[in-house]
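PROTEIN SPECIFICATION:
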Amino acid sequence: MSAPRIILPLNLASEPFRRDRPLLVASAATAALLLGVFLLLVHGIAVQREAAAENRAQLAALEARLRAVAAEQAQLEARLREPANAQVLDRSVLLNSLILRKSISWTQLFSDLEKVMPGNVRLITVRPFLTGDNAVQLDMVVGAQSPEPVIELLKRLERSPTFGATALLSSSPPTQNEPLYRYRVSVNYAQKF
């Protein structure tokens, strides 16, 4: 009887067999995809550069036009300030300011105030005036039985798109002759025409 033979699997090759083909195919596909994304990004950058160049050219043209208009305006203002034209300019400024003051519609003003005025607040006086930047501001005196309705009025004025920032200028408690709390309020007013 002979000795049992033991068979050992032995690979005599210098490099063992590996399955690299799927990995190589996946790497090639990923490289092609990344190259495509890279080319898209390069194209996007080129398009943005062209758009930026067009925008810079338009901006330069607009700035040149603005400089020309500013120079023309300076010439006209210098001409208006000549002694011969000073009287006409002063009269024009006066008439424009009068027209602007008369453009405040009292009917519209009271209609706008009616929309925000609580029922238990009484409007005692209202005086519109123009600020230095030609904005309309109202100087009002309001009265109420207690301070809470006036606080509600101030909140409504500030939330309203027609009115703006409010300021409480002064207040006075009820007296024997005047049974209401009186408050002097200043508020910005943007009348809709």
In short: The two ends are 122 Å apart (CA to CA). The longest strand covers residues 121-130. The first helix runs from residue 21 to 80. Residues 55 and 128 are 45 Å apart (CA to CA).
